[in-house]
Amino acid sequence: MPGSANQDMSFSRAWFTFLCLLQDDSAEALTDFLDDGDDNSLGSSKVIGVDDNELLATRKALSDARARNKAIEKERDQLLEKLAWSEAKQKEYLSTVMHDKDLAISELEAAEALFNNKLEESLEEKFSLESKLVLAKQDAVELAVQVEKLAEIAFQQATSHILEDAQLRVSAAEASAAEASFQIEEQIRSASEGAITAVLQQSKDAIEKALAVAESAGDHTTKAMAAFVDNMGSVDEIISVQSQNIKLSNTVNDLESQLLVYRNDIDRLKLELNQARKEAKAYELRANDVEKLFHEFQESSRKAALQQEEEIKSSLEKMRKDATEKRKAASKAFKLEIERMKAAIEAARETARSQDEAYMRRCEALQRSLRAAEAASKMWRQRAEMAEDMLLKKSSSEEGDEEAIYSVNGGRIDLLMDDDSQKWKLLTDGPRRPTPEWMARRIRSLRPRFPPRKTHVSEAMTAGYKTLDLPKPDEVWSIAQEKLKEGDVLVEHVIEKEVIEKKRKALERALQRKTVKWQRTPEETKLESGTGTGREIVFQGFNWESWRRQWYLELANKAADLSRSGITAVWFPPPTESVAPQGYMPSDLYNLNSAYGSVEELRSCIEEMHNQDLLALGDVVLNHRCAHKQSPNGVWNIFGGKLAWGPEAIVCDDPNFQGRGNPSSGDIFHAAPNIDHSQEFVRQDVKEWLNWLRNDIGFDGWRLDFVRGFSGGYVKEYIEASNPAFSIGEYWDSLAYEGGNLCYNQDAHRQRIVNWINATGGSSSAFDVTTKGILHSALHNQYWRLIDPQGKPTGVMGWWPSRAVTFLENHDTGSTQGHWPFPRDKLTQGYAYILTHPGTPVIFYDHFYDFGIRDIINELIEARTRAGIHCRSPLKIYHANNDGYVAQIGDTLAMKLGHLDWNPSKEVHLDGTWQKFVDKGPEYQIWLRQ
To answer: Rounded to two decimals, what is the model's pTM?
Structure first.
């Protein structure tokens, strides 16, 4: 019995050794073993208790093992040939790399030569430009001289012409005056001479007549006296003489009267002569005045000529300065061109250097792959040799052999031997550590096809081994993914895959919006006055230049698109008539025909928003109002329209408009009269106006402009009276800076905004200006700014998230005004922050329709909607440092900003299954809990 037991044990050992040899393909060792047994087959068969049939079967199995060993050797030869081929391919690739390097060097040299040629050409062009500039300067000087000469000639011609004209005018005036005086004197002289001649002639005739009568009378008298003497009187003759004397005296009286008339005519003529002399003197005075004016005109002409000369000199000086500036500009442009050329050369060098580094990395990757292949081949050779050495040893030669354990483990040999057991386990099973998912995916896509593990000897005997399908050397570059090059097949596949995936997601979203109406719970649709449902996503539906187009018509056409994107409310521009076209200087509050469109177009646009389940928020300006008329002292403080207020509606401390109301309850807006909201009639009119906008026009809520100008208590009264669905106050205040840098602690800033919200009784939200200002700096690798010492966000969002309206840009900070624009390269990160965090986010019109990031915003809105994020969602910040920012919002969303290496599996508190929803690499990543 002991002998049979030993025989069974020796037979089992021999059979096990045979099986091990079969599985390790060590047929040569087994052949030697059996050949040694041929010399004494009978003895050996007796020792191990095996008959001839079994021995023949063993020899047949041995021959099969030899054939299989030859096949393995053949396969090994093929592997060596492949290795040699890969080495040849490597040498060829190295030669190609060197050739490419030489080409790059030659291209660099050619670029340097081209740069030198361009530099020489630019220098020649510079010299030619300088020579042209000198010639142009000479031409300018000559032109200036010619201009001066022409100006002098023109001045001389102009002055000579003016002088000649003036002299001709003076001469003509003198001639006309002399002629007039001569004519008057001639008329006076002719009239006086004619009158005197007529008088003298008439006097002469009268005297002659009188003398003739007197002579005839004397003759009669003589005759009468003679007759009286002679005859001593006849009474009749005496009577006739007396009658003749009476006639004579009458004639003398007539002559005296005519003489008096003639004297009166002479006096009148003397008066006319004196008047003519006065007129001649007046003409002389006028001639003197004309001469004086002529002298003044000469003086003014001389001054004008001097001024024109000064202007010509200044223009010449300006031309010289312009020429100097142009020369400087040309020199500066030339320097800039040189700098650009240097930058281009440096870029070419950098490109060549990067190509060289890429080629070297490719070579290193190939060398690493070849070394790995050599190491694997060497390892298999060593293991085969070790197995051969172990099987060639006799079982009875050493005592330690009885303690060695050989076991079959899925087609592999596990040699568990004392101290080396763990080493052999590592050789057979590999390291005991979990493989990352990304590495497992890559291994599954690129791993070679090893022989399948066998669990039974029959499967191991009958199954044929497959050869190793190693990656080709020219594929190692793509596998390594050091730096993908243009034209690489893998790059094209990756880009095509991304495009297809993007289109697929867009199609899924479109189909989901088209077929499935978002079902909201009662909690999601419950409205609170002034603060909405808490799930609003606001869209600012205008910018600073929207008034230039028919804006209400354009905005109405976008309502369906905004609703499909997940937006719930649209912020309208100011609707009232305004002095400024943007609407922020209102005048007649009840006149809604503005630069954006008519009141009918406004009603139609709001109706279209309601048809698409969108809230319409009106931008109302309650702090100030522009007057229609001036007061008697010339101040614009008389209002028109339906609300015909006067100075009593203006605060008394507004320095520009002489208000007679109470002092202001806030800051003064100096461009227009500030309304006194402490007046009962003002508040009543504002309430009626807001209710008219709500009930008649159709607005659902308000965006309140410049709420720093009046107390939040009045806002509370207006909200309670108008009952809006949502209200946002613009409390814009300056942040704290120190040395030009943003301070970390902005508690005072957000406290002022929170104080205003608290003054409204929490009935209105407010823009989170603090968060906007902090994001400007935080997204430039200063993510530590996004957490305060209490572990909360550093804006209003951290203290009162349900009243914080977060935004990145609006019509004041961005658009064409650009007072405080958000960094354009950080817009996507900014939207990833505000659209995944609590508060009410606002999307700016320009970003959505003009900046090309609409799909990104839609994706973030979808993430917010799927995760059920609202204005009161809980927030836990895990990391906030220079490398990045990590936070969990609600129960189903986690997000990361920056380069921080993080995923939900690294946090022990984030249980459950998380799926990556958005992956923008180092910008941001978003996960959703399944």
So the answer is: 0.49
Using N-to-C axis directions, what is the helix angle for 712-722 and 747-759, rounded to 10°? 50
Helix, strand, coil percent content, the chain, rounded in steps of 5: 65, 10, 25
Which of 574 and 302 is assigned the larger pLDDT?
574
CA atoms of 559 and 566, how far apart (whole Å): 11
- Distances in Å between the Cα of 388 and the Cα atoms of 13, 17, 376, 531, 916 are 16, 11, 18, 83, 52
Q: Catalytic residue positions? A: 705, 730
- Give the whole-angstrom CA distance, residue 605 versus residue 11: 97
Residue type, 563: S
Identity (one letter) of the amino acid at 715? V
In 3-state terms, what secondary structure has residue 264?
A: helix
Burial of 773 (0-12, 13-18, 19+ CB in 10 A): buried
Q: 853 near 809, Cβ under 8 Å?
A: no
- Reply yes or no on whether the pLDDT at 646 is more than 90: yes
Task: Find the helix packing angle between 27-38 and 235-392, rounded to 10°.
Answer: 10
- pLDDT > 90: what percent of the chain? 41
Burial-class residue 499 by CB neighbours within 10 Å (0-12, 13-18, 19+): exposed
Place of tokens 């309850």: 665
Mean pLDDT of 697-710: 96
To 10 degrees, the CA torsion angle through 530, 534, 535, 536? 20
Instruction: List C-alpha distances in Å: 666 to 598, 714, 720.
Output: 33, 11, 21
- Tell me the CA distances in angstroms from 656 to 82, 628, 668, 674, 794, one per residue in order: 93, 15, 10, 10, 39
Q: Output the average pLDDT for the chain.
A: 76
Name every residue whose Cβ is closer than 8 Å to that of residue 141 and which is 6 or more positions away in sequence: none
- What value does the mean pLDDT take over residues 175-189? 64
> Cα(51)–Cα(34) distance, rounded to whole angstroms?
14
Tokens of 348: 């070419």
Contacts 24+ apart (CB under 8 A), 12-18: 13/395, 14/48, 16/406, 17/391, 17/395, 18/58, 18/61
pLDDT class of 482 with cuts at 50, 70, 90: very low
Residues 854-883: what's their mean pLDDT?
95
